[in-house]
Amino acid sequence: MSTSAVMSLGVRAMFADYAALQTTSNNIANANVAGYSRQQVSLETAKGQYTGAGFFGKGVNVTTVTRSYDQFLTREAANSKALAATDKARLDQLNLLEQVFPTGESGIGYAAGQFLNSMVDLASNPQDASTRQVVLSRASDLSMRFNSAAGQLDTLQAGVTSDLQNSVKSVNELAKNIANVNDKIAAVIGAGHAPNDLLDERDRLVSRLSELVQVTTLPAEDGTLAVFIAGGQRLVLGSQASALQVNPDPSDASRSTIAIVDNGIGRNLSTDLMTGGTIAGLLNFQNNDLVDARNMLGQMAAAIAGRINEQQSFGLDLRSPPGAGGALFSIGAPRALSNENNLKDSAGNFVTNVTLTTTDPTQLRASDYSLQADPLSPGNYTLTRLSDGTVTTIASGDVVDGMRIDISPAAAADDRFLLQPVGRAANGISRVIDDPRGLAAASPVTATVGASNTGTATVGSLRVTSSSIDPSLTATVTFNSSTGNYDWQLVDASNNLVSNGSSTWVPGQPISINGFDLTLNGVPANGDVFTVAKTLYPASNNGNALAMAAMRDETLVGRTLNSSGQLSGGNTITDAYAAAMADVGVRVQSAESTATTSAAVAAQTEQQRAGQAGVNLDEEAAHLIQFQQAYQAAAKVLQVAQSIFDTLLQTAAG
After folding, report:
1. In-domain check, residue 39
2. 511 with 458, same domain?
3. What is the band of 503 on the pLDDT scale with cuts at 50, 70, 90?
């Protein structure tokens, strides 16, 4: 073997060790760079040279530089980041939502209680102008509390839309960058060596993209990486990137939806398929938590305002002459929204329109509804209560959950409608009576006890329950037995009989005649008489004020009409507000727990990825010494070869 062979071995060894030193130094330099994958030199033994004495090695070759990379761990780290980002985005919004339902004196429940308590003072002194002014002031405070809360919800919606726009802008920039890196990788991958730094850069971009939107990746043979979102929608393919945009939701323009632009046309993506990333968290909050909060708030506003207005209409005000009380509150009207894709005429107007009318505000549910034609029953429609999925088949003009639904003309098979009976109720509530005399504190009828009654029965309460009452009629109830049987009759001002009947009195249950409920305390005796007649002195009467004060304990929110036609269930206004606070509080606590767990999982999976691909400085320091010594040894081989060569020259010269 010649000295040139020994020298060649030394040169190859020095080059290999120098390459290893260079790669190790690069690892150390990038140890703190996020997403950097540890690199290492791949070596192989050079093919030996055959001689008569056998094969002699020709040293080492540097084949390539590889990076430490695990596809599974990288994908899992990205997916866990997407889930953690979803939970964090929703939690951040829920924390803001919780502030809309404050406790104590700042809350709507307190304001409602104060308003109804003012009715007690009004009942105690129905003629006092200052007492009446306090009632109006409390009514204004209650309506402003509802307005403020509704305004905060609108602000949250605007914030969600802004955050979605910023997130979409970031997604589009990242998609373009991934496409550019794909192009660079494809250009150099044909050389037979992996562009490690470019691959790391692409992985970092995909990881950042995953925090915004859940992605699925598919590698191609040319080294590029295809990126898909929302169940297979192409975002990046090779060097081409699609763009997302924020559009108004076709079912409700006040909400936002995400669309992907294809050939200049935006196609809305299904929110059900947006399962990860900040965008998914924002959409989840917008379409569920925010809608539920708005409906809970609107349900309370519609119930108390509607019930107060109804009771106002039953009473007499303090004007001269006294008249039926007018509405104390105005309220946001129920809405029926046509989907933007519904059938339109040549002028661009919707062919079919749906109208909602509130029939009983105490039966309204804290929910939106979807309405569409029933394909199995022509002329009928399928109504789905979105809060719990309850499905009802209805026809135009039917009444469901305290609202009447009118559809004209018949809807097309593909038409869709979003019904919001209480969604904007809190936004539109306001006090509309300015004159204190407009408060209807007096009842149009008054109950009296017969002077010759012998039983212990007294008038417990007298409440007007229907606008159909005719105050000009006089009702007489006469008990004809000790078992509680009684006869009743209605006569007009001329004492002509209008109607009569008989029934059995049950302790605790009212006697209902002519649109009023008469409740007795004690026990009536045979022959006892009770009379209900027109109120002669409305200025001093407090019957209707007592009925409004009794609403403090009335379950007027969310009542249900049972099969027997009776109303049951429901909550008082203060209990309804407490339930709303509890509902939001539970959501916040659940979201905090979920966000903590998903963040821990994301940190763990990232740690596992980094453990596989990251740089260990202690290990690299050991490699640095190892390759330094190897380089020095290779240099010694060259030195020895040089010495041998010099000796040979000297021998030849001698």
Report:
1. yes
2. yes
3. very high
- Helices 71-98 + 573-613 axis angle, to 10: 160
Does residue 636 sit in the same domain as residue 536?
no
Domain tally for the chain?
2
Beta strands 54-56; 60-67: pairing state? unpaired
Question: Exposure pattern of 181-197 as b/e (b: 16+ CB <10 Å)?
Answer: bbebbbeebeeeebbbe
7-16 pLDDT tens trace: 777 788 888 8
533 pLDDT above the threshold of 60: yes
The pTM of this model reads 0.88
Residues contacting 541, CB < 8 A, separation 6+: 126, 316, 441, 442, 443, 446, 535
Tell which wins on pLDDT, 246 or 627: 246
According to DSSP, the residues that pair with 49 across neighbouring strands are 56
Give yes or no: residues 531 and 622 share one domain. Answer: no
Strand order across the 416-420 sheet: 335-338, 416-420, 369-373, 381-385, 390-394
In the block, tokens 């029953």 appear at 377
Residue given tokens 């009770």 in the structure block: 530
Residue 430: φ, ψ to 5°: -160, 155
Do the domain assignments include residue 135?
no
Mean pLDDT of 585-613: 92
CA distance 219 to 237: 10
Provide the domain limits for residue 520.
441-572
Last residue of a domain, one of 572, 602, 632: 572
Residue 564 class from Cβ within 10 Å (0-12 exposed, 13-18 middle, 19+ buried)?
Answer: exposed
Do 501 and 621 sit in the same domain of this protein?
Answer: no
